[in-house]
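Standup notes, structure subgroup. Blocker cleared on the NAP input:
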Amino acid sequence: MYACHSSVPITRSDPRVKPETVLITGASSGIGKELARCFARDGSRLVLVARRRDPLEVLATQLRPASGIEAVVLVADLACPEGAARVFSQIERDGLEVDVLVNNAGFGAQGLFAQLPLDRQLEMVQLNATTLTHLTRTFLPGMIARRRGGILNIASTAAFQPGPHMAVYYASKAFVLSFSEALSEELSGTGVTVTALCPGPTATGFGEAAQMRRTPMFRLLTMSASSVAEAGHRGFRRRRAVVIPGVWNRLLTFSVRLVPRWLSRRIVGAMNRPRET
Ligand SMILES: NC(=O)c1ccc[n+]([C@@H]2O[C@H](COP(=O)([O-])OP(=O)(O)OC[C@H]3O[C@@H](n4cnc5c(N)ncnc54)[C@H](OP(=O)(O)O)[C@@H]3O)[C@@H](O)[C@H]2O)c1
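Run returned:
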């Protein structure tokens, strides 16, 4: 059902090579859960991270017999400043080395910046940007030393322009894209790659978590979580720096380059403005 392709040979059948360990944040639902299925097909050992234990356990229980892989569940709140350090301590206690880090956990909030609760917006910056940076800095040196591995960061098409009515979310994703692209260049020749996956509207729990009403942005061209994950996984295996799944998303992000920035932010503001119907 999930056709995940890979251009890098996967070595599960070779008993001399230990399987890569892939840590996926936000694996309890949506894109993260589908990415877990993709990496399971490769035979990777998985560390599934999120706050809700039950859906992680259900996923791990499904994947172990289906793919013959090891799947470890790690419950953590990554929107608190200690989250990344706690994950690292647990990984060390379990004696694991993380070969692939998938920074997927994230959320948005829709509304006017001045009216949305400050603590929620600061949590968003913490989860979407600060924890992502912390986990990257934690696991990257080991990958460089082993001369293998990579990081898949989930950005968004929101990364390409400012987003009135979701100002902090768009800014956090602009950070993820810029950071990932810069790292990808810095790591050239090290054997370690960084990919930014930039989905557009995707059918997941995201809209509900962001308390989004039916905006024109979300009514248009929503993709499935599995097709977004497949594209991200394929692009990561092909060592792409940036992956934008879906033709319409690629056209939209390209068109941003053709219009003045003031017009771009005005259009996005109109698209993001909540409608009652
Ligand atoms: N859906 C879209 O339209 C869309 C578009 C572009 C980019 N994205 C990005 O894609 C990524 C995945 O989102 P999704 O669409 O798959 O939404 P989702 O279904 O709501 O999944 C979000 C995941 O993040 C986890 N998470 C949320 N807060 C967390 C916290 N404090 N600590 C640890 N884990 C936390 C959630 O698990 P728990 O609740 O169990 O903690 C869940 O597994 C996000 O970075 C999002 O910004 C989504």
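Discussed briefly. Residues 1-13 have pLDDT under 50 and may be disordered.
Next: hand off to the docking folks.
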